[in-house]
Design a protein that fits this description.
mainly beta, 6-stranded antiparallel β-sheet, 5 helices, 6% helix, globular, binds fe (ii) ion
Length: 492
């Protein structure tokens, strides 16, 4: 392995010992490197994959002005590139306007999601309005570029997936910003986006085409400010949402952002991909909150959508949490808010919804073969977390046709990152490929990349590749085939 170290970034965070999400697998790291020809710890790097895995992490760079939440951290992206049985690694902070401003100032300039109004020293951005656009939530690959986004809606930042060169703010970004979880349809090269805000019409939806142009952008009027996090799509439709978990209106008048469950149903808005506001059809469903959806597809008169239905979207404070952190830690603990793999059927003919759980275990952060995005699919891959913590411990493969499932659990002290599906070159079947994930090993204070062969799922990792440094935990990730990145070759 050959490692090139980049000049250090400026950090002023000294004491990380008192915050549960500033240590262990969430300990911040600041070094940026280019590493080529990574060493193999065990197994052999397969030569039947060609593409790039991108993983997003959240890093506190400066001492917080008040209370730090891990989702306030600055976005750092890590990539591993596979080609001809060899692997390279690169990582970079996303040079957002906020990151650059705090580098210049040598201190934090913005408060975080948990802070009281007026904490920030500069005006903020996004739906909340007082936060830094940290670009630290989600990452996709579209039109040959990495697209990094923030959950409170902000600018989309672009990086070159091969070199990790910063390419700045996407020109297509609407003035209202873009939420995390834009969806890329690899069959058409289009990217579907949405945003939300505290001001009417409260939500917009749009389409960015494969040539990086915002070719469609429409308001999706809602009854008030909402907190959507994700969306879903089929070949012909996009599915937006209006959940009963949103900022309490009376607190909002005092600029306090306190989300609570309201006595309302969940609503899903189905719009043709290029539909107008009047084309949106709303379907009511059981009250819940959904952080993430899996796939959706059309089946006769129905649209079928899979996602993770939270049984307890407003959990009680986490027992045993360090003093002052029990509320925040409950909202980061899946075993507290209990997301279950769930299926909704929306009948376009009679307007009814039919829904049920597909599994009773606590699962989230699902992935599937993106060549089946928007189409009928059979295999879903979810993760399980360490009770009490936002740390991935297990991967679960589901055969949605038979209901069968397989689980791989990591040994003690090892934590994973969200694990997308990597199709083999010339794959014949939907599950002909690997799951890819970065591991943080707290026993050895190192990180590695693993691949799990999805045809032999419960045998566990088939290769372990050393990374040049221990990375931090984070939220999302993506896999992109090189032919999709470089040649804009679309999926069949
Ligand atoms: Fe997310």
């Amino acid at each position: 392995m050959k490692v090139e170290q980049l000049p250090p970034v400026r950090t002023t965070l000294k004491d990380t010992s008192k915050h549960p999400y500033m240590k262990g697998a969430w300990a911040p790291m600041y070094s940026e490197v280019n590493a080529t020809d990574l060493d193999v710890i065990e197994g052999k790097i397969p030569d039947d994959i060609d593409g790039i895995y991108v993983r997003n992490t959240e890093i506190p760079v400066h001492a917080p002005l008040a209370r730090y939440h891990p989702f306030d951290g600055d976005g750092m992206l890590h990539t591993i590139s596979f080609k001809n049985g060899k692997a390279d690694y690169r990582n970079r902070f996303v040079r957002t306007r906020g990151f650059q401003a705090e580098q210049e100032a040598g201190q934090a300039l913005w408060g975080g999601i948990l802070d009281a109004p007026g904490t920030s020293l500069r005006p903020g951005t996004g739906a909340h309005g007082e936060l830094k656009d940290a670009s630290s939530t989600d990452v996709v690959v579209h039109a040959g570029k990495i697209v990094s986004t923030f959950y409170q809606c902000g600018e989309a930042y672009l990086l070159d997936p091969e070199t990790m060169e910063q390419e700045g703010v996407a020109g297509w970004g609407p003035i209202d910003g873009v939420s995390a979880h834009p969806k890329v349809d690899e069959a058409t090269g289009e990217m579907l986006i949405f945003n939300y805000s505290k001001y009417p019409p409260y939500m917009h939806y749009g389409v960015v085409n494969k040539d990086n142009k915002l070719v469609h952008y429409v308001p999706v009027p809602l009854p008030g400010p909402r907190l959507p996090h994700d969306m879903a799509f089929t070949t012909n439709y996009s599915i937006l949402n209006d959940f009963p978990l949103f900022w309490d209106e009376s607190f909002l008048k005092q600029n306090i952002h306190l989300a609570r469950m309201h006595k309302l149903p969940s609503r899903f808005g189905i719009i043709p991909r290029y539909g107008k506001p009047e084309d949106v059809r709303w379907f009511e469903a059981a009250p819940t909150y959904v952080l993430h959806f899996l796939n959706a597809y059309e089946d006769g008169d129905e649209i079928i959508m899979d996602g993770y239905f939270q049984e307890n979207p407003t959990p009680t404070p986490l027992e045993g949490a360090p003093k002052g952190f029990s509320h925040m830690m409950a909202y980061l603990d899946e075993h507290s808010f209990k997301p279950k793999l769930h299926r909704w059927h929306f009948n376009l003919k009679d307007g009814t919804t039919h829904e049920y759980n597909l599994d009773d275990r606590v699962l989230e952060f699902g992935m599937f073969n993106q060549r089946y995005a928007g189409k009928p699919y059979r295999y879903a891959y979810s993760t399980m977390t360490e009770p009490g913590w936002f740390l991935f411990k297990s991967f679960v493969k589901h055969d949605l046709h038979t209901g069968e499932s397989w689980t791989v659990t990591l040994p003690e002290g090892r934590y994973a990152s969200e694990a997308p599906f990597v199709p083999r070159i010339n794959a014949k079947d939907e599950d002909d490929g690997y799951l890819v994930s970065f591991i943080i090993d707290e026993n050895t204070q190192t990180s590695e990349c693993i691949l799990i062969d999805c045809k032999r799922f419960d045998e566990g990792p088939v290769v372990r590749i050393a990374l040049p440094h221990k990375i931090s935990s984070g939220t999302h990730s993506v896999w992109a085939d090189r032919r999709f990145i470089r040649d804009h070759q679309l999926a069949e």
